Amino acid sequence: TLAIAFLAVFSTVIATVTWSYALARTPAPHAAAFLYLVAPLSIVIAWAWLGERPSAMTWAGGAVALAGVGVVRWAARPVHNEHNHAENGDRDRGAHPGVLAVRR
User: Fold this and answer.
1) How far apart are CA 90 and CA 84, in angstroms?
2) What is the pLDDT of residues 41-91, one digit of tens each?
């Protein structure tokens, strides 16, 4: 029963609270991109804490997950050019003023 209580507290309550905290302070797509970091962090924790030896495929999967986060973060950067800021402000971005333009 102690194991069930541990799982309830750490995997449900703390995860829900931290997810809600992140969503309250960052846009949902930004916060969701960091969910992909769970797999690489799990590999590192299992290696350091449990002494597991990850295979080459495990490291490759972690690298793909990290690359995915990098691509999402790079693509979500605001587009800055003279047309957007000098002439019309944010009106030509075609989005709500609080929404960032996405690189295409």
Assistant:
1) 6
2) 888 888 999 899 999 998 898 889 888 878 877 776 666 655 555 444 544
d(CA 87, CA 13): 48
Task: Report DSSP letters for 18-79, one per residue.
Answer: HHHHHHHHS-HHHHHHGGGGHHHHHHHHHHHHH-----HHHHHHHHHHHHHHHHHHHHTSPP
Task: Name the residue with tokens 């299992």.
Answer: 46
What does pTM read for this prediction? 0.51
Q: How far is CA 91 from CA 68, 77, 79, 95, 96, in A?
A: 30, 18, 13, 8, 9
